[in-house]
Structure formats: C-alpha cells, structure tokens
Amino acid sequence: MDLDAVLALWDQPIEQRDDPVADFRRCYADPVTVNGVPATAEQLVQRARALQVAFAERRTELVHRVEAGDKVVIGFYMHVRHVGPYETAFGRVEATERQLRIRVNDILTVRDGLIVDIWVMRDDADLLRQLDRLPSSV
C-alpha cells in the first residue's frame, strides 16, 4: 500500500481528477469496510467531495505509522480551512473560515496492496471546540 497515494486521494481536490472512482479503486477494495459498514468506491469519492466542500486547503501531517502484519495504524492531523457547511453530532456548522487542526487515527487492514477495512477515530470533541460548539473545559 502506498500511503502517500492514499493520503493524496483525500488531500487533492476531487474535481481535478479525471476518474476519481478509478483512483480510489487503486488504493481501496470496492467495497471497503469503514467502521463496520461497507462503502463503495463511489461512496468514498462522495465522502471526499463532502469533506472538500467543508474544508479547503487540506494538508495531512502524519505523526505516527505503525505496521503489524496486515494492519497499518496511522495517527495524523488534518490541517484545513473551514469554508463550507459541516454536519456534526450537534448539527450543521456553517463556514467559519477558521484554520483547524483535526486529530485522526486510522486502523487500516491491507490485503494484496488494497485497504479492505478501515476504523476511523476522529477527535470530534476537539474539532467542535475549535468551531465553538463545545466549551473548552469539556
């Protein structure tokens, strides 16, 4: 698995790709399981597009990468600017133009060079604090 290629799928604008579905299929099984739920390559493209509507100028800062057997665990920050509506557990947050740093951990299962399973753990409490949806003491 080429981690740089995987991260580029999410960082680079979907609209600049000739065939984003094919690009995702080069890195992910189709379907891939995301937090226990199957997702097609088309659905991954839709997720990437939704994130790119909400967050511009995405840059991924890889902090940790640990490999064991068919598992790859990565910890990273997504550095973004909040430019569009973002759906949260507390409702929709309209664009704030704020620069955000979102902490994420992914557990990837890789077989035959493709990601077949993902567990995504994002620090939503910290993100909601940055968006003034939670007090800083929570």
Compact summary:
The chain has 138 residues and is an alpha+beta fold. The protein has 4 helices and 8 strands, in the order H-H-E-E-H-E-E-E-E-E-E-H.
Question: Any overview of this molecule?
Answer:
The protein is built from four helices and eight strands. The chain is α+β, with helices and mostly antiparallel strands and 138 residues long. A six-stranded mixed sheet has the order 2-1-8-7-4-3. A two-stranded antiparallel sheet has the order 5-6. The chain is globular, with a radius of gyration of 15 Å.
Task: Describe the secondary-structure layout.
Elements: H1 3-11, H2 20-25, E1 28-34, E2 37-39, H3 41-54, E3 55-68, E4 71-82, E5 86-88, E6 91-93, E7 99-111, E8 114-122, H4 124-130
Parallel strand pairs: 1-8
Antiparallel strand pairs: 1-2, 3-4, 4-7, 5-6, 7-8
